[in-house]
Design goal:
Helix content is 36%, strand content 9%. The chain is α/β, with parallel strands linked by helices. The protein contains ten helices and five strands, in the order αααααβααββαβαβα. A five-stranded parallel β-sheet has the order 1-2-3-4-5, covered by helices on one side.
Length: 258
């Protein structure tokens, strides 16, 4: 009844509701609003069959208007970590391009964090897993952190009889990491993490960490294993410090277990 009365009220005739002056808000507040809408979680973005359900609706905000889209995409792409090479089985075919290769250069410019998730294809690396110009890593001019998550280490004795050889996957991933680091123009930090089965001092992790150190990157440790807080890691740091101080390559490991 009230709606009928309002519609017949002469004083309301010809009045329209004014749009909210969103762009009159301070830029910091607009960014917080965009973050609330576009980055409700900290999940890593990858090629995934569920993307059309989880991301498409939010990305429609890019289409509101040019200015809205410009501010929104900066928040979305800087607010998530993007995976360099896909890991879902549906997208490991030879002709499937990684997500990074599908993004325009201005989206890659907005990225601040990338991830290498290593494990799928330990006996036969996925065909799309190679570094080339198509990835546009040189366009990632704001990426200062590369996260490396190791799912398995096939150099472990448990894989004997199933792997091609002990060092195949270690060499492949070491080369892959080095090529990625070489192409990221402002990369500063490499963060390592892994599943409980991965030995921090095993052949694979040793190779990856050594390659990152040789590239003069700062090494940090992820939250899954908290390697940086373990006794083994503290002893390993002491060993490396002693080796650097004495110029000795043969200082033995103080502890070889996780």
């Amino acid at each position: 009844m009230s709606s009928t009365e309002d519609s017949n009220d002469p004083s309301s005739a010809g009045k329209t509701q004014k749009p909210f002056p969103f762009f009159s808000l301070p830029s910091e507040l607009r960014s917080k609003i965009f973050s609330y809408l576009l980055c409700p979680d900290s999940r890593t973005i990858d090629l995934d069959p569920s993307n059309h359900r989880s991301a498409t609706g939010r990305l429609n905000l890019f289409l509101v208007c040019k200015r809205f889209g410009f501010e929104a995409y900066h928040v979305f792409y800087s607010g998530h970590t993007f995976r360099i090479f896909q890991t879902h089985g549906r997208f490991l075919g030879k002709r499937t391009e990684p997500l990074l290769a599908r993004l325009p250069s201005y989206y890659r410019n907005a990225l601040v964090s990338l991830e290498l998730r290593l494990g799928p294809g330990w006996s036969d690396p996925p065909k799309p897993w190679y570094v080339s110009d198509r990835l546009g890593l040189e366009d990632c001019t704001s990426v200062r952190t590369l996260r490396v998550f190791v799912e398995v280490d096939p150099s472990s004795p448990v894989f004997k009889g199933f792997r091609l050889n002990r060092d195949f996957f270690t060499h492949f991933l070491g080369t892959l990491l080095r090529e990625v680091m070489d192409r990221l123009p402002v990369l500063e930090t490499v963060e390592f993490d892994g599943y409980p089965s991965v030995d921090r001092h095993g052949a694979l992790m040793t190779r990856l960490v050594d390659d990152a150190r040789r590239a003069k990157k700062r090494i940090t440790w992820g939250a899954e294993r908290e390697w940086g807080d373990s006794l083994a890691d503290k002893l390993e740091k002491a060993r490396l410090k002693a080796r650097e101080a004495n110029g000795m390559e043969g200082v033995p490991r103080l502890l070889s277990v996780v």
